[in-house]
Amino acid sequence: MNIIYEKSTAEDYVSLRIRSGMGKKDIERSRIAIENSLFTASIYDDDKLIAFGRVVGDNGITYVVSDVMVDENYRRKGYANRIMDVIDEYLDINTFEDSYISLIANSPADCIYSKHKFEYLPKGKCGMLRNQNKF
């Protein structure tokens, strides 16, 4: 199975989110998100999206690796690493020494990213998520 660099459809993306355990997202917002991605990589088994990853950001300083996911039925076959390999290639070519490149990983998948130049935050730094629950 080859890596496809064309942007996947929002329907394929949301379907894979569900099959990978990452949860459902709104189709229209997903379409906007994919369209605004700097880089996407997809692996299909025939017409079925089985692995995906993307890079988002401002294309100058800040880049975020996002939505690296693999269908639960295709795990442990190296697809996440293949997606990360091409994301690494993209980042090597399109980012700069002073670029800020980050990601948030779900455990235990975080172990994959250390093979791709990512490190845990050093002492004195922490990652945070904004609470989007409406009060």
From TrEMBL:
GO terms for molecular function: acyltransferase activity, transferring groups other than amino-acyl groups. SUPFAM superfamilies: Acyl-CoA N-acyltransferases (Nat) (SSF55729). Signal peptide: none annotated. It holds the Pfam family Acetyltransf_7. Residues 43-119 form the N-acetyltransferase domain. Keywords: Transferase. This is GNAT family N-acetyltransferase. It comes from Clostridium senegalense.
